Amino acid sequence: MNAQPEHTAIVAARDDGIAPGELLMDVRNVSLRFGGVKAITDISFNVRKGEIRAIIGPNGAGKTSMLNVINGFYTPQEGTITFRGVERRAMKPHHAVRQGIARTFQNVALFKGMSTLDNIMTGRSVKMNRGLGWQMLWHGPALREEIEHREKVEEIIDFLEIQHIRRTPVGKLPYGLQKRVELGRALAMEPSLLLLDEPMAGMNLEEKEDMSRFILDVNRQRGTTICLIEHDMGVVMDLSDRVVVLDYGKKIADGVPDEVKSNQQVIDAYLGVAH
Amino acid sequence: MRATALPAGMTLDTFPKYLLLNAQRFGDRPALRHKDYGIWQSWSWSQQLDEIRALAIGLQSMGLAHGERVAVIGANRPRLYWAICAAQSLGAIPVPVYADAVAEELAHVLDHAEVRFAVVQDQEQVDKIQSFSDHIPRLKTIIYDEPRGLRDYDHSSLHSFADVQAQGRSLLSSDPQIGSRWEKGIVEASGDDISVMLYTSGTTGRSKGVMLSARGSVAAAVDTAVFDGLTEKDSVLAYLPLAWVGDHYLNYAQGYVSGFCMNCPESPETVPQDLREIAPTFYFAPPRVFEGLLTSVTIRMEDASALKRKMYNHFIGIARKHGESILEGRPVSFGARISYALGRIFVYEPLKNVLGLSNIRVAYTAGEAIGQDLFSFFRSLGINLKQLYGQTEAFLYVTCQKDGAVRADAVGPAAPNVDIRISDNGEVQFRSPGQFTGYFKQDDATRETVTEDGFVKTGDAGFFEADGQLRIIDRAKDVGKLNAGALFAPKYIENVLKFFPNIKEAVAFGHARDFVTAFINIDLQAVGNWAERNNIAYASYQELAGHPEVYRIIAGHVDEANRRLASEPMMAGAQINRFLILHKELDADDGELTRTQKVRRSFVADRYEPLIEALYDGSTQKFVETEVTYEDGRKGKIRATVRIEDAAIYGGSAALREAAE
Q: What does pTM read for this prediction?
C-alpha cells in the first residue's frame, strides 16, 4: 500500500551520544587578533545540547568573528574550543562540517544560478560517498545514493514549505526565501550544531514569524542545537534559552533572557552611556 | 480488502454508496492523487475505500454518531476529503470551513454549526481553534493531519489522523463484523440525510449554513456529469477552497458519481506547476484566474525575443479570427484552417501545454462576469471554455452553457432539470434537484429565501436573452438609480473597468447620487511589470498606485470604459465622472472582500466614507488613515493622500452632469 508515510521528524537527528542538556561545545578563553586589532578578547561560554543559544551585541562586537571561530574559518591565537568532548585548535571549515557544524551567512551565500533543489543538494555532498568515477557513470550505486539524498532534501523542502520554488534559480527569489533556502542547505548537512548568522535580517514581520517557527521546529523536533546571532531583540528574547552578550570583543553578560535584559552593562552597551 | 458485493437494486442516493460502487466497478483505477515530497502519490478506488473505512471506524470508536457535525478545515488534501466521506458514511454531517478564515470567523462557524469533531490540516488551524476554545465548548475532539509543531501540545483533545486510522484498522482486524456492519450502514442509509453543510461566503453579513440533502446532491451531480459526458477517465485538479460549493460539487460530488480522478496540489503556491503536470480534462476557474493567466502570458511575451513576439502576435491574430468558429464547427475557409493548423503547432499547443490546459475537454468559469476579449482568447486557442451560473443554495448549477452555444455576456439556459423564472421585480428564481433543504438554525432566513411554491430567490437581477440564455445584471439589491433617473448597476460598471488588465478591482458608487464615481485597485503584477520596463521605481503598492504616470494610464482606461458604457442604451447614463486609485489593495483579511474575493460593497462604503465624500464634493485630493489587519491578526495603520481625477463623459448624458453641478 502506498499510503502517505508519516514524516514526523525531518532528517533523523544526528546521534552524537550526548544527552540533552549536557555540554555540546565549550569555548574557553578564546582571543582572536588581526594584526593589532583585537576582534575577540578572552571569551568563554558554552553551548548545551538541545538549546537555542543566542549571541548578541552592538555592531562590531565580534559576533560574526565568534561564529567564524566556531566553524573553523578563523583560528584563534589563544584559547580552546571543545566540541563533542574533543578539544581542537586549528581546523578547516570542511572539518567542522564533518564534525556536525553547519551554518548560514549574514548575507546569503547561495549558488545564485542553481535551483533551490540543487542548492540544498549541495548540503548533502559531504555525505555522498561515491567517487567521481561512479558519479560520472551515474547508474547503479551513485544513482541509488542520489535518490536517498534527494529524499532527505524533499523532506527539508516540505518542512520549509518551499515546494513552489523547487526548480527556481535562487538568484530570482526574494531575499526572505533565499534565507529559507540557505537554512535548508544547512539542515541538509544534518548538523548537531547549527550556526545562524542573522537569520531574520532584512525580513518583514511575516517572514520573521515564519523563520522563527522553522527555527523552533528544527530545535524541538530534531533536537538540533542552535547558536544564532540576531539583532531583533524580540526574536532573541522569545526564541533563545540562553543569551551571551558581546561588546567590543568582550563578554559582558551571559544568562537566560530575563537576566540579560535587566543587566545594566547590556543596557549601557545598547543604548550608550553619557561620558 | 474489497467491498462485499452490493445488493442489487440499491438506490444510489448518497456519496458513500458511490464509494462502495466505485471500489467495485473501478477498483484499480486512480481515485485520488496528491503530490507529496515532489512525487505524485496515488490511491485507487479500493485503496481509498480502505482509507475511509479505517478512518470512519476510528471516528466511530471515538463517539461520532449519526446527525452530528464534523468540521473539516484545511487545504485540498486527500485526508480531508476522506474525512468528508468518512463522516457521511456514519450519517454525520461534514462542515467544510474556509482554511484562511481568521480565528474569530472560524469560531463563529464552528459554534453555529455545533460541531463536536474537527478534522484539520495543521498547527495553524489547531491554534486558531484553541484560541477561541471558550466560544466553542461543544468541540471536544480535534484531529490533525500534519503533526509538525504539535508535539508539545496537550493531547487530551488532540489526535493525529494516522492514530485515528490505526485505531480503526486494529478494530477492523480484531472483529471482521465491524467492517461489514459499516458497509451495511452505508447501504441502508437514507437519501434524506443531510449530506453536507456548506457555509455561504457571507457577501452580505454573517455566513449561513446551507444544508444539502444526500439525494438532492447526488441527483444534481449525476445530471451535470451526464450533461458534460464525464466518465472515470476524466481528471481534475482540486485546488479550489474546500469549503466552497464549487470544490465540493465539481471535484468531490462529480468525482464520486462518475468515478474520475481528483488530484490534490502539493501546496497552494504550486498550483500552476501541478496543473501543468496533471493536465486535467475538466477544469473550473473563476474569471480572475483566467485573467491572471492572460496577464502573465502577455507580460512574458512582452519580454520575449522579437521573432517569438512576432510569431505569437501573428498566430493569436489568426486564432482570434477563426479559432472560435473552428471550435464550434462552423464553416471556415480551407486557407484559414491551414493557418490555424500551423498556429496550433507553433503557438497554441505549446502555450496550452505551459498553462496546463492541453487536455481540457470541458472548462467552466463562473462567479463574476468575464470580459469578451478574455473569454474569446481562451476559446480561440481551442479550449472549450463555457459559463455557468450557480449558487450554494442550488448545490451549484442553475444554468450552464451547452457545447457550441457559448457567449461571454450570458450564462446559458437552465441546467438539466432546473426551472428558472424571473419574478415581477426582475429577480432570478429557480427550483433545482440539488436545491438546499434550509439554512441551519435559521428558519426565518430560509422562509425569506424560498417562495411558497418552492422556488429559491437568488437575489440576482437578470433577464432571458432571445436565445434562451440567462443574463445576470447585478445583485438585485445593489441595482439603484441616479438622481436623474438613470439605471445604476454598480457591478456592471465595475466589470467594464476590470476588463482592463491594469485594473484588478473596482468599486462604483452612484445610487441616489448625481453621478457615478469609482474606486480603483491597480493590478500590481501588470502595472508593476509596466513600471519595471519603464524604469519607474516604487517601494510599495501605495507608492505605485499614487504615481502620476499610473494615474494617466488608469484615466485612459476610465475614458475607454465610458465610451463602452455610452454605447449601451441602458447604461449610458451611468458613466464614471470621477475616480480615484485606492492606496491599498482590497483584502479579505480587512473584511473588504469575501473569502471568495468578492467586494463587500457596503463595508467598503462605510470604511472609506471620507473618500466617497471627497469624490462628490469636488476636492482633488484627500488624506486618509486606514486600519489594516496583518495575516497574524495584528493591526496597523496606513496613511495616504489620495488624488481624485475627473473623467470625460460621452454621448447625450454629458449634459446631465453639468445640470447636476
A: 0.82
